[in-house]
Amino acid sequence: MFWGFCEALNFIQQYQKKLSADESLPESLNILLFGSGDPRHILATASQLFLHPGLKVNVYLAEGCIELLARHMVLLAVAFEDPELLSLKGKTHLFMDLFGNNLIRPFSSAYLSSKAKELTDIITDAEYAQRQAPMFNYETLRYKERDQLENVFRFWTNAPEHVFNIARYWEDRLRVQLGERYNHRNGAFDWDLQMRLRENGAKQVCPQEYKHWRETGIAFTFPEYEQSDPNKTFAVGLVRNGKGFLHRGSVGDNMTGPYIAFGHKCAEERLSRSKHGVNDFRSTDVTERNVLQIVYEIQNRNPYCFDPKDIHQYGAHQLDAGKNLNKHEARTESAEAIHYNKPLLRCENLSIHFLSVEDVLRMHEMERFAGKFDVVFVASNYLGLVKDGFSRAWKESCLVCFETRQLTVFSKEEIKEHTDKIKAFAQKESLAAVTNFSINKNHSVLLYKRAGNK
């Protein structure tokens, strides 16, 4: 729910794969992200836009709950934050904290609280939004949904009544999920990792990081940091209750983890080295490298040159992650808190459109989307929401990308069943494969195009 199960894709690069030698990119690309769960594809695409100065990219986000749209906003804000407020390393670790950790650093908590106030102003004042975050377009959101977004941002601010004891919710959910196996959970975690996740292809994930995440919900750890405050971006189903809020506790994935999006592959093969099943680098370290590249290229608009000194290397080490403080009380704002209210970095050829939650169920019948999209991405858990008529929203030259369940803890039978459903839909819609199925490898994403498109 809060992250996807395939790598971050640069959709400009993916679109180019289907073009013939005599074809070129169009002047603009309209991209639909149907339930992507996180902004990984937006960031991977945005970081390479400096290579295509004449190309306009419009991204349309369709998510099933309003809290996910809010989470997209804050994660994008981190990546596009003014460099006077955050260094590249600061952006990288802040992004990782908010993206994948149940408990976050006090610094991350203070940032979230301050940014929540800024985002409130952005979604309630169109003129202010144009100055501060012109890439955000929320015109299609209903007023009710804007009010809901405002409530989400209000909950993110640090106030005594905004309590979110996610450490307890996580443990309670784990106890129910494992039942009698709870007292032997370390073995259950190891089986899920070795016999499912790594067997399915996610070999970069290391035992020590995966088991720590399954136990605590903290995916990304570094020895210099200690996580203590609840990550309120994981709260969904928020409803006002006096000065406080009701919510659904802990929801979303608690078996695969947030490692695949940025921590599965990278350009440097040496980061994937392994000896006797022990990796030189954790998925956390690869995530750090990839996120650092993205924020560097967004900020500097030139290619990133990897330096091993920029990242950690803890693949073979069992880190003492420190005592998780599991705060029961909400943090209150300090008087000297920094205000993160500078305009986000400009990206003139990128626009992000936040679609109404109701559009998820009506995409197939909405006239304003007819023949709209050059690229469509369908998340694995949204395949069941793809209805007859969904293809009406595609252009004739559309690239259609389906996320599989390959890099998850699903069984091979479940993965195959899901992949077969994708292939059956592709056949029904007369789609031609862009993915090379003749290569003996498993795919986290299957790419198709209209069969009549050369």
From TrEMBL:
GO terms for biological process: axonemal dynein complex assembly; motile cilium assembly. The keyword Lyase does not apply. It comes from the Eukaryota. It is found in: Dynein axonemal particle. Coiled coil: none annotated. Residues 2-104 form the DUF4470 domain. GO terms for cellular component: dynein axonemal particle. Residues 136-433 form the Dynein assembly factor 3 C-terminal domain. Pfam families: DUF4470 (PF14737), DUF4471 (PF14740). InterPro entries: DNAAF3 (IPR039304), DNAAF3_C (IPR028235), DUF4470 (IPR027974). Keywords: Cilium biogenesis/degradation, Cytoplasm. The keyword Transport does not apply. Belongs to the DNAAF3 family. This is Dynein assembly factor 3, axonemal homolog.
